[in-house]
Amino acid sequence: MNDTLANTEKKTAYVLTLPAILLVFSIILFPIFANVWISFKEVELKDIRIPEPRAKKIVKSISDEPFKIKILYKLRNSSLIQEIRDVSFQDNFPKNFEIENLDPRCAYEKYNLKCEFGNWPAKYRENFQVVFKTNDGSKVDKKNLKTIKPKLYGKSDNILLNTNFTLKNFKKVLFENEFVDLLLTTFYYTFFGTVGSIVFGILTAQMVNQKFYGRTFMRSVLLFPYVAPVVALAYTWELLLDPNSGTLNSLLLNYQIIETPINLLGQKYIEISILGFDFKLRLALTTVVMFEIWRYFPLAFLFILARLQAIPKELYEAADVDGASPFQKFFNITLPQITAVISILFMIRFIWNFNKFEDVFLLTGGASGTRTLPINVYQQGFAISDIGMGSAVSIVIVVLLLMFMFFYFKLLGKRVDEN
Amino acid sequence: MRTKNTILFSLISTFFLIFLISIWKILATLQGLSINSFNIEIIFIFGFLISLAHLGIGDRIKSIYKSIIFSSIFVFCDGFLIQKLPIWYNVGVFLILYFFTNKISKYTFIGLKEEHSTQVILFDFLTLFGILFFSFVILFPFYMMLVTSFKTQIALLVNPLDFSINFGQDIKDLFKSYFVIFKSYKFGKYIVTSTIVSVGTVIITLLFAIPAAYAVARLNFFGKTFLSTSILIIYMFPAIVLVIPLYTIFSQLGLRNSIEGLLIVYTATTLPVAIYMLQGYFKSIPKELEEAAILDKLSWFGIITKIIIPLSIPAISSVALYVFMIAWNEFLFSLMFLDNPNSFTLSRAIQYLSGDAETPRQYLMAGSVVVTLPVLFIFVYFEKYLVSGLTAGSVKG
Prior knowledge:
Oligomer: heterodimer
Radius of gyration of chain A: 33 Å
CATH class of the largest domain in chain A: Mainly Alpha
CATH topology of the largest domain in chain A: MetI-like fold
Number of helices of chain B: 19
Shape of chain B: flat
CATH superfamily of the largest domain in chain A: MetI-like
Structural class of chain A: alpha+beta
Mean pLDDT of chain A: 83
Strand content of chain B: under 5%
Largest sheet of chain A: 4 strands, antiparallel
Mean pLDDT of chain B: 83
Shape of chain A: elongated
Helix content of chain A: 40-55%
Number of strands of chain B: 0
CATH architecture of the largest domain in chain A: Orthogonal Bundle
Helix content of chain B: over 70%
Distance between the termini of chain B: 50 Å
Order of helices and strands of chain A: HEEEEEEEHEHHHHHEEHHHHHH
Number of helices of chain A: 13
Number of strands of chain A: 10
Largest sheet of chain B: none
CATH topology of the largest domain in chain B: MetI-like fold
Structural class of chain B: mainly alpha
Largest interface: A-B, 97 and 103 residues
Distance between the termini of chain A: 47 Å
Number of domains of chain B: 2
């Protein structure tokens, strides 16, 4: 009895979870494997459209002969690169139609015109014409003829399904794609974006954790950048930073802080000298990192605030009794209490920043030294239309991510062991 | 010690005052006033003197009179003698000074002798500074977005700093950008598409997630632990990696440029986090209720619809709002899958609009306001639910 109960429970569980699992697997896990497959192929954007045989039907009346009609089919292979095999053609006609001249490839039976056109090479075009006459002397209804559409069938190779593999994509990714620069840019963006958002998160959480008038309002305001749509925010920032009529540059010029406008999103480097040392700062990249920090520190804020509110008040009261200063309290009580949250946040944000596409894409489109790996996936796959290359870059991203996760969990595991 | 603390206190408070007045000046500049300098030196001297005078006078004058006197002196010297600016600007300065003198009035000479007093003061002022700084930095772009959408192209080019809105003009002129984007750019249609996609995603996600979450939370089956851990790992997988295979498959299946295609992808990407959030809540519902239901011969379907769902309305609403927000804001997939203007979502439409360099910026900003307002409204109105959703599902980038 108990056994059957457990069995029904199992069955129910599978029934309940199966729809979700199937959907997630087909849309998330399957594409990851498909990526591996595509990355070893030479595929371009134009290759992925399956070639179709197409026919455009043009009905022409013949002058002086109202009982006859000429029908012209403009036949073509939709693909410019692939052939279609065994093309067959079918079209229906009204019951009073007789065919005048029959092409040797076709047969006319039961008011049905059937043709076998054989193989069509790429770019194939043919004007195929038939003439009909009515056998009862009635006039031809052209409108009716136009509404009947011919049907075409043909076989073609799906380039994605054949087994021609190549290592060319990975060679190109690693050796012809400024790979080192790409990696450095991505890590700069990811690392500073992550650290910056966590630092600001700590500051704001510490701030909101104190009592002041308008605290709940402040908490909602701090989350605005995180909940608003990225498209709107990115374009607002673009306007704000515009070198010609942007608010920021106009303000700085107005207060004579700068003499010429700075193109914050369009300039790759800026020379800065601090204490006599000249160095070049990646200006556009830094601006994009700023946007990243601005948009994502609210998340760190939310996490850290939740943790701060859970710290027992007694700890601070005891510290007060011991005469600790505010900074001592912060460094000796608050900070140790939030390290766990920070390390989780660091991982989450690092992974997501590493894969961030929209923010950089909308702000600079990957120009002026802001080309990160995800941007490169898009550029390769859709701007250069090399799907295989795009997939190869995606695979690089996945491998790097897995490596990062592996090291992270190893380090974390070690720390837990030590404790 | 006392001299050092006095000087430090005066410095800290003065810097705070400089910051306050600078922000006020920036805001005033954006209303069309021509202010070309922060006059930091003058404010520094005044602020320093006020702080010292405040400590020196102490309790001898009631603090409210003290504040009014200090503020009036400052406004008189700075505003009328040096800058010669309109009255509303000076009223603002007066209020800032009044606020500032009130803030410093709780620090006294005797207090400065206490241990860590400068650190306490620094902490207090840093908090105040932080509140103002972050409010300004966060709200300013939103403010700019809103105001730009009410301006005209010429006004923006003539003086990019003038953000004042002329409310005297005709309503039609004021909302011209909005009329244009709804009439010529079909934004009404895009709003409908975005709403259908977002609401559809919420409904389908919940339909799939509630049973699955219930199974993970309550039932014993082979592969349960594997399933619940893989949910989160799957969720960490980046969308950009899925884009190319999904694009090729969707092209071949003819799912591109269709709402169905977007619904499938959005549902799949939000399902893991929805399941994760819901199963956590379902676990907290007491088991006894279900045991009673099983004795009453209620089926699993009955248990879910009659017991679990009514009891977890808060969790379900926070998942629903969170999923709605993700779907509404989503950009990457809509960029990849939609290239026919008839099937655009709002985000994609705005990006398309900006692709044309000729598009006036106020239209772009009006579009941005249209896409942002619903989300912010929902967020402010349902903040409690959304915040718990954000913290639970916060792995979403």
